[in-house]
Each structure stands twice: as structure tokens, then as C-alpha cells.
Amino acid sequence: MKIAAYLDRIGYKEDTAPTLETLTAIHQAHLRAIPYENFDIHLGRYLPLDDRATYEKIVTQRRGGWCYEMNSLMAWALRELGFSVTLLASAVNRAKLGAAAEFNHLILKVYMDRAYMVDVGFGNGIFQPLPLEPGIYVQHGFAYGLSYDEDTEQWHFFNQPYGGVGVEFTLRPRQITDFSARCHELQTSPSSSFVRNVVAYRFTPTGYIGLRNATLTTVKPSGELTRTIESEGAFRRVLSELFDLNLSSDQLSTLWQVVWQKHQA
């Protein structure tokens, strides 16, 4: 980890002391600078659970990543800055997926004066850390919620109305290798939503933008607006201008063919 290079990647030039103010600012800067995306799955590239490979991809090559990459990189950077970080396993959409939801999302617990939920890998989730205390939290104009079940020791995260479904998790510490089986399944199984769809998200000063195959959605607290991307040239401009992702011509053409085929289907 070359922490100066990571901070440059997210455009962060402020104090790096391990405080809540630093944590909040880095969390926001990461989300504004680095898009959530699963492009490699559709470019025929395997996504390993490897810190060095993730660093090379996101920091050096200036790409984005999905939850296992985004949050593991964040954990590494925060530890370099002196924060106490714990990996947590969480389940997205357990109501529909049941046991298959276990370990399908990685989040972080950062402890200072109290514990905080940190997550830069959900795409359309929180914008800054949430204190691990039940309640409603308004960030960036969007309302989020946390509740706790003492009987099961389960935390429940409720996403904002335009975002994805909520998350369930416990505070049991995990290692990155604990996610290996689910990481493999989510990028190889035909039933996986990551295999079925090309997605990208990036936070903006007024909300966030989302790409799902050829549909581009702009989301603000007041509502959302969608439009269809209808050409490879327009797709290139969207990736470059809105997501700050500049793929090679071959990569972009390959990805566009996948995107348009999925859109038509």
C-alpha cells in the first residue's frame, strides 16, 4: 500500500489523523472518485480476493470495483492511517436468496469512540459512515436506517428508497478468505445478478448516477431520471465523462456488445 498514491487517487489532501472527521472525508472522497463497477466479469477477467491485485487495478490503473475490492482496499488504507478496522460478512436480499445471501457483501466496522459501519462497496448505499446505533440517518439528502435484534444479534441496514435492498450482518470478525466461495460464485454462476447485468455507480454532488446495462439513471433525493444509451460512442462518453473510466478500444467494444445484447434481451 502506497498510501500517498491511494489518497491521490481519491483526491484527498486534508488531515490524515485517525479521527471521525478524517474517516468521513475519506469515505466521501472514495465514493466520488472511484466508481463501483463489475466490468471485468463481462470482459472475461477473474476477480481475485487479493489486496495487491485490487490496489493495482483501482489505484494504478484507475478502475473501479465491486464490494470485495472496494471495501478491502478501504480497509487496507484505513489501517495504514492508524484506524482499527474489522471485516464483516453481510447478506443482501436474504428474504429472497435465503442462505445463498450469506457472504454476498463485505462491509467494515471501524472503531474509534464507538463503532461505525463503513461501506464504499454498495454502489447506491451510504455516503458516509453510520454509527452502529439504531436510528434513522439522513446523508446527502437520502434517509437510511439501522436496527438491531438482540435475540439474534443481527443488525439490519435499511437503504434509501431509490437504492438496492437492505443488508443484514453481525459483528463477528472475518478474514478476506472467508469470502472466497461466494466471491467465486457471484462472478461465475449464470444465476448471479453480477453475471446477468453490467453495472456501475458513482456518487455526485447532488446524488449519484447508476448504469445497468444500457440504462443510465440519475438519482437525486427528489427523484430519478432514466435514459437509454443507444450507441457505442455514447457509451464511451458516459463511461469517460460521468464515471471517469477510460477503457481501451477493444475493451469498450467488447463491453458494449455485451451491454447492448443484454439491453435488447
What does this molecule look like?
The chain has 265 residues and is of the alpha+beta class. It folds into two domains: 186 residues, Arylamine N-acetyltransferase fold (2-Layer Sandwich), CATH 3.30.2140; 72 residues, Arylamine N-acetyltransferase (Arylamine N-acetyltransferase fold, 2-Layer Sandwich). It has ten helices and 13 strands. The strands form two sheets. Strands 5-4-3-2-9-8-7-6 form an eight-stranded antiparallel sheet, with helices on one face. Strands 1-10-11-12-13 form a five-stranded antiparallel sheet. The longest helix has 16 residues.
Largest sheet: 8 strands, antiparallel
User: What is the CATH C-level name of the largest domain?
Assistant: Alpha Beta
> What is the domain tally?
2
Q: Tell me what the CATH architecture of the largest domain is.
A: 2-Layer Sandwich
The average pLDDT score comes to 95
Low-confidence stretches: none
Oligomer: single chain
Give the CA-based shape.
Answer: globular
Strands of the widest sheet, in order across it, are: 5-4-3-2-9-8-7-6
Tell me the Rg in angstroms: 18 Å
DSSP helical segment count:
10
Strand content: 25-35%
- Give the termini separation: 42 Å
Number of strands: 13
CATH level 3 topology of the largest domain: Arylamine N-acetyltransferase fold
Helix-strand makeup class = alpha+beta
Estimated helix fraction: 25-40%
Helix and strand element order? HHEHHHEHEEEEEEEHHEEEEHH
